[in-house]
Specification:
Helices cover about 70% and strands about 0% of the residues. α2 runs antiparallel to α3.
Length: about 70
Amino acid sequence: MGLLLKKGLPAQVGETIIGGLALCVFYIGISGSLLIIGIALNMFKVTNLKIMNYVPAIFFIIIFCLF
């Protein structure tokens, strides 16, 4: 990111990096929203989901976005 700010990388590479980071943030936001919905459904006794089993999905998305 430092090279990007100091104009050390070409514009296309910088745009690609920024686009990739935006996509990672988008996916993490979706995963977090789904976990919050699952927690709410458990609190209202609508379902009996084991939410903590789904928490690693957030970290998987971070690793997935790196490659």
